C-alpha cells in the first residue's frame, strides 16, 4: 500500500528488529533462518501461493500438482533465505564479500568491455540477484541499476542505502532511458532486469516459457541504438554463506544498429517525380520502422530465452509469485 504511513512505520520497525537478529548471527546462519520464515510465509500467504502455482502450471505444464506444490514451497524458502542473506551480507566490506564468490565466465565481460561502447548487464529476479553485481562493481567500477521505488518510503530509503553500500547507483525507473544512455556512452555499466511484467503501453509481447508476456523493449532499443553489448549476469547461493557468479557470453545487437541512418535521397527536378519520391520515402520509412520493431522484438526475445534457460536450471529460485502472464493471452 502506497499511502499507509502507520503501516509503513510498523513494517519498518519489524524490519529493524529482524535486521538486528540477523546481524547478531553468523552469516552462514542467515539463510536457514530466512528459509524457515519463507516456509511460514508460504503457509500464510495464500494469494501469492496460488499465483506461483498458476505460473508454474503455465511454464511447466507437464508437472503434476504435487511437484508444483513442492516448487512453490521451495520458492518461498529461497526468497526468505535470499532476503536474510542480503541483509546479513552488508556486514562485509567489498573485498570480504567478493572473496566469498567463485567466478564463471569473467572472460565474457572482458570481451564486451574491450569494445569500448559501455555495457548493459542483463539479470532477473532470480538467485541472489541483489548482490550479483558486487564483484563487477569492485573490480570494474560502479554499476547503475534501474529500479522502481518501494511503496514503503522507509524501506525504500533502507534499500537504496543497502544498494549503494553493495556498489550500485540507482536510476529511478521513471524516465530511465536518457540516464542509461548517458552511462553507457561514458563507458559505464547499466544493469536491468526485464523479467517482470510491464504495463501494456510500456511493453511488447514476446514469448516467455512458450506464452506471450508483456516485456519492456527498452534494453533492446538502447542496445541497438548505440551498438552496446548486453552481458547476462547471474548469482547463485553456495554452501557456507558463499556465492557463485555466472557471466554468460555477450548478446550483440544487429551490426546494422551502428550503421546510422541511410543516406539522403537526392533531390529531383520534376514536380511529379518529387511527389512520387516523397511517397516512396514514406513507404520506406514505414518499412524501416517495421523492420526495427521486429529486430527489437527478436532481441528482447533472445534476452528472455537466456533468462528462461537459467530459470529452468534452478526453477525454485525465480520469483513465481509475480503475475508475469496475462492469463487471457496465455491460455
Secondary structure layout:
Elements: H1 5-24, H2 27-44, H3 46-59, H4 65-89, H5 94-98, E1 101-104, H6 106-113, E2 119-122, H7 134-140, E3 143-147, H8 153-166, E4 168-172, H9 176-185, E5 189-192, E6 204-208, E7 211-215, H10 218-226, E8 230-238, E9 242-247, H11 271-313, H12 327-330
Parallel strand pairs: 1-9, 2-5, 2-8, 3-4, 3-5
Antiparallel strand pairs: 6-7, 8-9
Helix pairs in contact: 2-4, 3-4, 10-11
Describe what this molecule looks like in 3D.
The protein has about 325 residues and is an alpha/beta fold. Helices cover about 55% and strands about 15% of the residues. The protein is built from twelve helices and nine strands. It has helices at about 5-25, 25-45, 45-60, 65-90, 95-100, 105-115, 135-140, 155-165, 175-185, 220-225, 270-315, 325-330; strands at about 100-105, 120, 145, 170, 190, 205-210, 210-215, 230-240, 240-245. Strands 1-9-8-2-5-3-4 form a seven-stranded mixed sheet, with helices on both faces. The chain has a two-stranded antiparallel ribbon with strand order 6-7. Helix 8 (about 155-165) links the parallel strand 3 and strand 4 (about 170). Helix 2 (about 25-45) crosses helix 4 (about 65-90), helix 3 (about 45-60) packs across helix 4 (about 65-90) and helix 10 (about 220-225) packs across helix 11. The longest helix is centred in the last third of the chain and has 43 residues, at about 270-315.
Amino acid at each position: 500500500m502506497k499511502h499507509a504511513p502507520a503501516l509503513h512505520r510498523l513494517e519498518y520497525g519489524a524490519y529493524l528488529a529482524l535486521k538486528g537478529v540477523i546481524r547478531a548471527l553468523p552469516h552462514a546462519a542467515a539463510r536457514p533462518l530466512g528459509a524457515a520464515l519463507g516456509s511460514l510465509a508460504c503457509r500464510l500467504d495464500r494469494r501469492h501461493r496460488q499465483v506461483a502455482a498458476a505460473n508454474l502450471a503455465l511454464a511447466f505444464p507437464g508437472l503434476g500438482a504435487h511437484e508444483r506444490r513442492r516448487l512453490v514451497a521451495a520458492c518461498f524458502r529461497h526468497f526468505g533465505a535470499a532476503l536474510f542473506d542480503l541483509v546479513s551480507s552488508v556486514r562485509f566490506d567489498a573485498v570480504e564479500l567478493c572473496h566469498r564468490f567463485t567466478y564463471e565466465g569473467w572472460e565474457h565481460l572482458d570481451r564486451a568491455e574491450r569494445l569500448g561502447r559501455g555495457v548493459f548487464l542483463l539479470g532477473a529476479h532470480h538467485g541472489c540477484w541483489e548482490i550479483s553485481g558486487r564483484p563487477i562493481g569492485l573490480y570494474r567500477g560502479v554499476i547503475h541499476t534501474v529500479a522502481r521505488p518501494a511503496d514503503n518510503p522507509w524501506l525504500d530509503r533502507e534499500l537504496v542505502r543497502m544498494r549503494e553500500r553493495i556498489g550500485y547507483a540507482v536510476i529511478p525507473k521513471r524516465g530511465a532511458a536518457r540516464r542509461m544512455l548517458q552511462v553507457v556512452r561514458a563507458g559505464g555499466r547499466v544493469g536491468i532486469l526485464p523479467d517482470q511484467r510491464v504495463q501494456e503501453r510500456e511493453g511488447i509481447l514476446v514469448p516467455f516459457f512458450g506464452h506471450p508476456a508483456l516485456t519492456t523493449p527498452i534494453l533492446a532499443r538502447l542496445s541497438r541504438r548505440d551498438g552496446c553489448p548486453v552481458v547476462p549476469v547471474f548469482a547463485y547461493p553456495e554452501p557456507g554463506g558463499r556465492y557463485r557468479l555466472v557471466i554468460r557470453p555477450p548478446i550483440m545487437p544487429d551490426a546494422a544498429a551502428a550503421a546510422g541512418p541511410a543516406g539522403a535521397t537526392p533531390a529531383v527536378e520534376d514536380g511529379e517525380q518529387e511527389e512520387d519520391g516523397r511517397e516512396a520515402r514514406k513507404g520506406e520509412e514505414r518499412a524501416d520502422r517495421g523492420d526495427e520493431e521486429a529486430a527489437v522484438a527478436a532481441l528482447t526475445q533472445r534476452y528472455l530465452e537466456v533468462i528462461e534457460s537459467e530459470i529452468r536450471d534452478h526453477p525454485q529460485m525465480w520469483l513465481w509469485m509475480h503475475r508475469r502472464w496475462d492469463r487471457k493471452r496465455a491460455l
